[in-house]
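Sample entry follows:

:::
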Amino acid sequence: MNTEFMLDGELAALPHFVTSLAIGLLIGLERERSPGSRAGLRTFALVALFGTLAAMLSEKANMPWLLLGGLLIVGFMTIAAYFRAKDDTVDPGTTTVAAILICYGLGAAVWYGNDTLAIMLAIITTALLYFKTELHGITQKLSRRDLISVLQFAVLTFIILPILPDKNYGFYEAINPYQIWLMVVLISGVSLAGYVALQLIGQRHSAVLGLFGGLVSSTATTLVYARRSVESQNFIPLAVVVILIANLTVLIRLAIISAVASPSILPQLLPVLGSGFLLGSGVAAYWWYQLNQQNELPVPEIKNPTEIRTAAAFGLIYGAVLFFAAWLSDIAGSSGLYAVALVSGLTDVDAITLSSLRLYELGKLEATETVTAISLGILSNIGFKLGLIFFIGNSLLAKQCISGMFATAGGIGLALVLF
């Protein structure tokens, strides 16, 4: 009876080792195909098993140093294997050494019950190893300015945000420095994603530039391509598609922002945004279908969205809109809020969207008022960009863009009436 019980206890640990073996084989499979690697399928499988075994012995013997000692042994043995290599043309193996150490750590993590996390990390590790060429290609395309953008976003998020007080100040307690800067981080993050993607795709995907241009700044994208349409009639069909897609992307952008800032508003807001998107997409799809040939499009020169000055300017605008929206909605009711939405939406729909969501979360606005204010901001922004196209762009471009923009505006207006 005792023997059977002990056997069951020993076999209970077997799934951990099976998982570690699978992790080692997964990472080792990728390393096996690398000509310069001195560790392959068997080595990685054994290292993962060793990590689980060392963790088990360390726990059962109550000797934590066994786990650390195993890590040091694996590291020294791997480095020694590459140190003995005399061929200078062979890969020095830094990546493989790091992968082996990670494999050992994942094996240990499996023993401590973190199987799912270990498997996820193993897949990520394998992907990083496999897509070496693609990752190097990305680094080649990102300029010094792009890397600075990433660092500036890190400053906005991890240095400035944590030191701001999370307290409400001023009249109506509408001004909260932490919440305001959190919205700055949110907008900068969405914009940065589009900005980096815009640099990576270059001129290869023509109208897809509209998608990323809309994430960064639909107004800037509209302005750039409206100006370009004056230079050449052949450019107009592509410019129409890019501008319409950029303006449709604004609705996706606002849906994402709303989902993060105030998820409870989505049942009321999504039908409005979705209606505008569906009708606008129909017209954009028509013009895309009419596009018979793809010409090279320039990447628009859009200002880095994460510069401290740009972020601070948005923060000030957002704070001002938030205050005036709270003030005017208090003294003039919903009509005062709607007036702010129409004015602020001319140049920046993000500010009125976030300020309305903030007031809704504070209980100062009803859901209907919030959705109406956001919708008015979008409609005002569409009107402003349409004016840009008429005054700056080619007249033919304006005539073709008006159908798509009116369709989007009509969908939003129809949804407001129906819902």
User: Anything to note?
Assistant: The chain is about 80% helix and 0% strand. Residues 1-7 have pLDDT under 50 and may be disordered.
